[in-house]
Amino acid sequence: MREGSPGRARLAVLALLGSILVPLVTAGLRSVLWVLAGIAALALAAVGVWWILAHTGVVRVLGLVLALAAPAAVLALYAAAGMLWAVCLSLALWALALAAARSALPSGHTASERTATTPRHPWVLMNPRSGGGKVGRFDLVDRARAAGCRVTLLDGDQDVTELARRAVAEGADLLAVAGGDGTQALVAEVAARHDLPFLVIPAGTRNHFALDLGLDRDDPAAALEALAEGVELRIDLGYAADRVFVNNASFGTYAFVVTDPAYRDAKARTTLRTLPGLLTGEDAPRLRARADRTHIDGLQALLVSNNPYGRAVDAAHPGRRGRLDSGLLGVVCVRVGNAAQAARLVRGPGSGGALIRLSAATVVVEADTDTLPAGIDGEHVVLPSPVVCRIAPGALRVRVPRRRLRTSRAGDGAADWPGVVRLALSSLRTP
Questions:
Q1: Which has the closest alpha carbon to 4: 427, 429, 430?
Q2: Is 28 exposed, middle or buried (0-12, 13-18, 19+ CB in 10 A)?
Q3: What is the CA radius of gyration of the chain?
Q4: 165, 179, 127, 124: which is closest to 146 by C-alpha?
Q5: First-to-last CA distance in the chain?
Q6: Which contiguous run of DSSP H or E holds residue 157?
Q7: pTM, rounded to two decimals
Q8: What rounded mean pLDDT belongs to the chain?
Q9: For residue 403, what pLDDT is reported?
Q10: How far is CA 283 from CA 165, 256, 262, 269, 279, in A?
C-alpha cells in the first residue's frame, strides 16, 4: 500500500482555499452570482446537447446554437466584468487541488501478487487485423515463438472459444491473446474454467483491460516478459447471462446504435441519425434494472462493469478502475427523458438524478422485449431478456510482468477531502 503524502495533502488544501479566495477577493459576495451564472451556462449547454441528440431539423440546429452560445456568453460576461482571469485562475487551482488530493492519500488497495512459475507449453492466439495490424508491426509472432509459445493466428472465421479449448486439450498450461478486449474475454473464460494462467498482450485498438492491469499499450511485446519474469494476480470476471466480460456490458441506446450496419464506417453520422428515435420516439427502448435491492426504471442506457470505474463513464470512452478484485460490479445508469433532466446532469451522479452510479454483486436488466441487444467488451450480441449480470470473484489468474505501469491513476477517483485535511493537519502537529 502506498503511504500518504503530507506534502501533497497540504498542497491540496492550500490550492482549494486559493480557488475559493481568488473570486472572493476579486468580486466579494458577487462572486456567488458569477458561480451561479457559470452553473446556469453549463445547464443550458446540457439542454443544447440533448436537443442535438434527441431531435432533428430546426430543434437540432437550435440545440447546437445553445450548446455553443451559453458558455460563450458567460465567458464574455466574465471578460467584460474583468473576472475572466480570476475565473481561469480559480479553476486551475481547483484542478490542482483535486489532483493533489487524489494522490495524497494511500491508494488503499494493491492486488495481491504471487510469484509465477515459467509455463512449459504456453499458447498464444493472435489477431493480425486487431489494432490496425499491431501483431505485424511489433513482430509479435516471432517474439512469442522465441519465448517458447505456440502461436495460432486468427483468420476471422474461426471459433475463438473452440481454439482455446483445443489448446487446453493439447496440453497448454498458459493461454494468451494478442488482440482486442472482446477476444481477450472469450479466451479468459476458458482459462478461468480450467484454472489456467492468462496473459494479456495489448494488440487491440483500445485495450482498456490491459491498461487497468498496468500494461503498456504502446509496447505490446513487453507483456511477453511475464512468461519468464512474471507475477500472478487473482482478479474478477463479469458475466452477462453466459457471456464473460473483462471490461463492461452496455445496454440501451449505445447497444442499439452499434447494431446498425452503417455504424462501423460512419459512427458519428449513424449515431446522430438513429439517436432521436431511440431517445424520444414512440418505440424508444426503456430499460429496467435491479442492482441488488435497488430498483431503477425508465433508463435509456446502462453500463455494467467488471469492478466499478473511478468516475462516471459512457460505453465508448470508459475511465479507469482502481482495482479488479473488489468482488463488485460497477453500475452506471442514464435516465434523461427531456431537457429538464438533461440540465440536471450538471449536478453529477446521484441516486435520484439523471445519472446514477451504484455498485452491486448482481444486476438484472430487462425491457418489454424478449431479447436485448448488448455490447460485450465492444462486441455486439443479442441476449434473452431479462439479462442477469453477475461477478465471479477471483475467477481469473492473470500473468503480468513484474515491472509494469501503475494500475491506477489519480484523476479517476473521488477526492476524500476529510482524509486529506486530517493528513495535512497531522503533519503540521508532528514535532
A1: 427
A2: exposed
A3: 24
A4: 124
A5: 25
A6: none
A7: 0.79
A8: 85
A9: 81
A10: 42, 12, 21, 21, 9
- The pLDDT tens digits of the residues spanning 231-286 come to 999 999 999 998 999 999 999 887 777 766 776 667 777 777 777 777 776 666 67
Question: Please, which residues have CB within 8 angstroms of residue 71's CB and are 6 or more apart in sequence?
Answer: 41, 42, 45
Residue 287 has pLDDT above 70, yes or no: yes
Q: Cell 451561479 sits at which residue?
A: 36
Give the span between the Cα atoms of 190 and 116, in whole angstroms.
19
Distance CA 273, CA 358 (A): 31
Query: In this structure, are residues 122 and 173 in contact, taking their beta carbons and an 8 Å threshold?
Result: yes
pLDDT digits (tens, 9 = 90+) for 291-346: 998 999 888 889 999 999 876 444 444 567 888 999 999 998 888 777 777 777 76
Report DSSP letters for 184-221, one per residue. HHHHHHHHHHTT-EEEEEE-SSS-HHHHHTT--TT-GG
Provide the pLDDT for residue 411. Answer: 43
How far is residue 122's CA from residue 152's CA, in Å, rounded to a whole number?
A: 11
Query: For residues 356 and 291, is the Cβ–Cβ distance under 8 A?
Result: no
**Is 107 within 8 Å of 408 (Cβ atoms)?**
yes
Per-residue pLDDT reduced to its tens digit, 200-212: 999 988 788 998 8
